[in-house]
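Lest this sound abstract, we let one protein speak, letters for residues, whole numbers for local backbone shapes, and leave readers to judge:
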Amino acid sequence: MDTNLSLFNQINSISYWLLIESNFKSSIILDAEKDTYYVTIKKGKQPLYTYCINNFSKKNKNFLKFELIGIVNSLLHIKQTITEKQRYSA
């Protein structure tokens, strides 16, 4: 679970960076009642990235890690794209 906690922290950090450094809106929802973990990135009202992990608490530890790594990689790609655009426009 330490690896997954690290991945959760990365997801939160990147989402916060997107919120502060860009005009993208990010939200992360862990819904215990629905047993879901939901990540979304929007520009205005247009969703750019969404991912939902259903049956979150019942997931195989290794599969959950794989899904979280995928979320981190997707968010890092978005962050890199924004950073490059900011660099070229400056």
Q: What stands out?
A: The chain is about 55% helix and 25% strand. The CA atoms of residues 15 and 26 lie 6 Å apart. The radius of gyration is 14 Å. The first strand starts at residue 24 and ends at 31.
